[in-house]
Design brief:
By secondary structure, this protein is an alpha/beta fold. It folds into two domains: 64 residues, no CATH class; 290 residues, Alpha-Beta Barrel (TIM Barrel), CATH 3.20.20. Helices cover 29% and strands 21% of the residues. It contains eleven helices and 17 strands. The strands form four sheets. Strands 3-2-7-16-17 form a five-stranded mixed sheet, with helices on one face. α4 packs parallel to α5 and α10 packs across α11. The chain is globular and about 70 Å long. The model has no long low-confidence stretch (mean pLDDT 95). Bound molecules: zinc ion. Zinc ion (ZN) binds next to loops.
Amino acid sequence: MRFLTADYLFPLFIAPIKHGVLQISDNGEVIAVFENRSEVPQEKLEVFEGVLCPGFVNAHCHLELSHLSGKAEKGKGFLDFIGAIQQRDSYTVIEKQIAVNKAEQQMITNGIVAVGDICNTTDTLSQKQKGNLQYYNFIEVFGVKDDLENQIISDAKDLRNQFRKVAQKATISPHAPYSVPPKLMEEIKNSFSNEDELMTIHMQETKHENELFEHKRGSFYNWLKEINASPEVWNNRTKSNSVLEELGNKKMLLVHNTFSKKKYISDNYYCTCPKANLYIENALPDYSMFDANKLCVGTDSLASNNSLSILEELNIIQENSNFDMNTLLKIACKNGAEALGFEQLGTFEKGKIPGVNLIGNLDGVKVTAESFIKVI
Ligand SMILES: [Zn+2]
């Protein structure tokens, strides 16, 4: 049994508590939260400088791209980034495995306990089976040419089933509005059953996506024409959000939203990946447009980020929004756990096993570039 206390405790299901105490069992299960240090045996109190919060949920990552760390040049834009990603297969299995292992270790050190992870391959499967972190695996589907949807969806189902066979959560998800024509979107929708709690999609990561749908022009339009994409991709879609209707009422996690507008924000979960947005497009979303109770945060992959650290992402969000520390930590813990359906995670409610993070070196209760994270 442990009694943990710090300058502030952030239970996230109730307001922050100055000098609050968290009681956890030896296996990390929350027993109780106390308002006052005098309520607990003094000799057992472990006192920390900083704040205590639950383990972080990284709502968007591509663990299988970890070996591409540093391969995409910073600030070159999205089409250049796609070029770098196309080199993904020119590495050995061992190189990929080592990178996946190191990346997961980095997430653990940085206080992450669960991940929403995009998968095109089984490259991460053996690492995930070790059970170090909890994963919701999104089996990514794309293909802009006509008449390939049957093959694409059948391959995706095979991949999804390989993850499910080893008790991993897995759901087929479209890559992005501009890479999935309506027919393939329909097949994805038809693949959902009750097991599929959530799907995800990259949304409005670049302004070229808006140009494509709203004006049928721009560099995405030219690029899609060049690779002989089906005009169905843009013909009857007037905005990125058009695809939400095609996907029915499935619970959704929309990722990036860098070039979205308040009028397009729906009653879904949203995920921001600020460091990746700065890395690729040098732009950030307008944080005032989101419902802070539905906003999650992700690192994206090491191909578009130099670290897998939720704390670093929070620092950028804080600098560019009016969110206070309690809201930032909800975004980092509670909302992601809710979106991904990890009921044991996200808050210090009794009975959960959410992990405990200490954030130190704060400026009052504000994160700074010098703040650190320690798993308690
Ligand atoms: Zn992504």
